[in-house]
Design brief:
The chain is 22% helix and 40% strand. It has helices spanning 15-29, 34-38, 57-70; strands spanning 41-49, 52-55, 71-83, 87-98, 104-116, 122-133. The mean pLDDT is 95.
């Protein structure tokens, strides 16, 4: 049995590798592990998350710790929107219970633009997102549901 890891998904991207990179990120973010997620970025990675501007592993990890302290029951889906050799645009949706707002269910709709280093780690992440309060009945990503199997209508794309 080989102990080697699969080769990282590095630029230049093809449609297949860009899609795989997005799904790998989706799965990583769904772990809600700030230290694991941070490793997917370069040490000097530049971030914009809504109106927050960050740079570097320490700031990113602290941001993610705060994010997931607030966003409970977090479930995320990402889809490839477009790509070039070292960039991707990603559409995403995630649902969470807002610990700072009475544990109300919310869904975030958003877009991200990613730029990658030659080694496959992200060196720039720009995110825009909008939250919408939803009812329990409106949830898509219930516990045990495969987020990739949820049919999301065109009105949400």
């Amino acid at each position: 049995m080989s102990s080697s890891s699969p080769a990282p998904l590095c630029p230049p991207f093809t449609a297949s590798t860009a899609h795989a990179k997005v799904k790998k990120a989706q799965n990583l973010w769904n772990t809600q592990s700030p230290s694991a997620v941070t490793k997917a970025y370069t040490p000097t990675c530049i971030w914009r998350n809504r109106s927050t501007f960050l740079q570097g592993h320490t700031a990113i990890e602290a941001f993610l710790e705060q994010k997931w302290a607030k966003e409970k029951s977090y479930r995320l889906r990402k889809e490839l929107f477009s790509f070039t050799e070292n960039k991707t645009a990603v559409q995403f949706w995630y649902e969470y219970q807002d610990a700072s707002d009475g544990m109300k269910w919310k869904r975030c709709y958003g877009l991200e633009h990613w730029t990658f280093d030659a080694d496959g780690r992200m060196r720039k992440r720009m995110m825009s997102g909008n939250d919408l309060e939803i009812s329990e009945q409106e949830r898509w990503f219930r516990e045990g549901v495969d987020v990739d199997g949820v049919e999301i209508g065109e009105e949400h794309w």
